[in-house]
């Protein structure tokens, strides 16, 4: 395990490659002063024109929303700054998972005058798939992310909406290199995110789920998207100030309800992420035990790149909060998929825990073998 020489990104992140000991996100950040923003704005105008000239149902673009910090800022920006007419699409978790905070934040967007379609996959299939993915992939969100990411292009095709705005380019701003398209704004490779597996659902069918029951988990094929003339574009590529914190501040000033948890309860110190449900901190904890980094690392990396804190200051925060998760969220998830808490930890220890990176102290208690910022 090695770290980026500039930030605290480890090389254990899936689908990332370091160059000259720099992670892809830091390498991109160093190019920002040389960017021709005038040329980038011309590209943005061409994309806007594409959406407006190809619309057929009254909407010239579509935005996937959870009511969170990124989607709230995107929706307001697209309507008020780009003068477009977006249709919002929300893939909602079932009642047992969604929070009152999440309901409030979607309502906040609707109350601001947006048209919004809410999709609610069958709760029983959702739960069965989350349980299957926890046991077999140590990622209970593997199936739900297929539904989340696939819902927007499905609606775009159905409503013949030519343009999808997405948020950040994970290849440039995080280091998930597989999603990189022909340009920095091209989001048509989003289907290749690590958890989406290019939209492959054969594993769901092999698990015994009938195709007629999993329509909401099917990502449209590349051929379907091409026939529909659908373009997916990373809006964050055109913003100089795209960041987790900036988006959170912007949206909170416009009615976003943020988390009130303590940093050691949710594994991060800001409280503007995963607002619509409470199991993401648990999933981030599992990711941390697999790869040695979680949500705090991703926040801190942005701050280091922006010069807000030093790398040494970031190390202290990561050491204190990364990978933390309140027991109440673990208990809630276990109750949802109907397993005992001891079984949860057995599955995590036997399948997710990277024993090269962590030592087992007791069930649910692990110590790092590596030093944050330095590696093994």
Key attributes of the depicted protein:
376 residues; 16 helices; Rossmann fold; 2 domains; five-stranded parallel β-sheet; 7 strands; alpha/beta; two-stranded antiparallel ribbon; single chain
Structure, briefly:
The chain is built from 16 helices and 7 strands. The protein is α/β, with parallel strands linked by helices. The radius of gyration is 20 Å and the shape is globular.
Structure commentary:
The structure is a single chain. With 376 residues, the chain is α/β, with parallel strands linked by helices. It has two domains: 33-238, HUPs (Rossmann fold); 261-368, no CATH class. It is 44% helix and 9% strand. It is built from 16 helices and seven strands. The strands form two sheets. The protein has a five-stranded parallel sheet, with helices on both faces. Strands 6-7 form a two-stranded antiparallel ribbon. Strand 6 (358-362) and strand 7 form a beta hairpin. The longest helix is centred in the N-terminal third of the chain and has 18 residues, at 37-54. It is globular, with a radius of gyration of 20 Å.
Question: How is the secondary structure organized here?
Answer:
Elements: H1 24-29, H2 37-54, E1 61-64, H3 69-80, E2 86-91, H4 100-111, E3 115-119, H5 123-137, H6 142-159, E4 163-166, H7 170-173, H8 202-206, H9 222-227, E5 231-234, H10 244-252, H11 263-266, H12 280-291, H13 295-305, H14 311-321, H15 327-337, H16 341-352, E6 358-362, E7 365-368
Parallel strand pairs: 1-2, 1-4, 2-3, 4-5
Antiparallel strand pairs: 6-7
Helix pairs in contact: 3-10, 13-14
């Amino acid at each position: 395990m090695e770290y980026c020489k500039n930030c605290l990104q480890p090389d254990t992140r899936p689908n990332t490659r370091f160059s000259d000991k720099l992670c892809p996100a830091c390498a991109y950040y160093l190019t920002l002063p040389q960017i021709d923003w005038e040329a980038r704005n011309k590209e943005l105008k061409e994309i806007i024109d594409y959406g407006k000239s190809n619309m057929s149902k009254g909407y010239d673009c579509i935005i996937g929303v959870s009511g969170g910090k990124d989607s709230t800022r995107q929706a307001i920006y697209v309507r008020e700054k780009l003068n477009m007419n977006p249709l919002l699409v929300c893939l909602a978790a079932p009642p047992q998972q969604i929070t009152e905070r999440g309901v409030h934040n979607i309502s906040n967007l609707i109350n601001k005058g947006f048209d919004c379609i809410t999709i609610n996959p069958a709760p029983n299939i959702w739960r069965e798939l989350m349980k299957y993915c926890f046991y077999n992939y140590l990622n209970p969100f593997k199936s739900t992310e297929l539904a989340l990411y696939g819902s927007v292009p499905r609606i775009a095709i159905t409503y013949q909406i030519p343009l999808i705005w997405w948020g950040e380019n994970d290849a440039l701003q995080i280091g998930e290199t597989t999603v990189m398209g022909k340009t920095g704004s091209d989001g048509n490779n989003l289907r290749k995110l690590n958890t989406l597996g290019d939209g492959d659902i054969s594993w769901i069918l092999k698990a015994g789920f009938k195709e007629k029951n999993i329509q909401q988990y099917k990502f449209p094929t590349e051929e379907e998207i091409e026939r529909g003339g659908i373009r997916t574009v990373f809006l964050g590529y055109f913003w100089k100030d795209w960041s987790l914190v900036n988006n959170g501040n912007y949206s909170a000033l416009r009615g976003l309800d943020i988390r009130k948890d303590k940093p050691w309860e949710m594994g991060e110190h800001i409280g503007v992420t995963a607002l619509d449900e409470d199991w993401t901190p648990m999933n981030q904890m599992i990711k941390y035990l697999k790869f040695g980094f979680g949500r705090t690392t991703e926040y801190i990396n942005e701050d280091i790149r922006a010069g807000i804190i030093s790398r040494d200051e970031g190390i202290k925060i990561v050491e204190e909060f990364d990978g933390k998760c309140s027991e109440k969220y673990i208990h809630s998830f276990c109750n949802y998929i109907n397993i005992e808490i001891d079984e949860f930890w057995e599955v995590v220890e036997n399948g997710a825990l990277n024993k090269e990176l962590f030592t087992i102290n007791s069930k649910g208690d692990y110590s790092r073998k590596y030093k944050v910022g330095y590696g093994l």
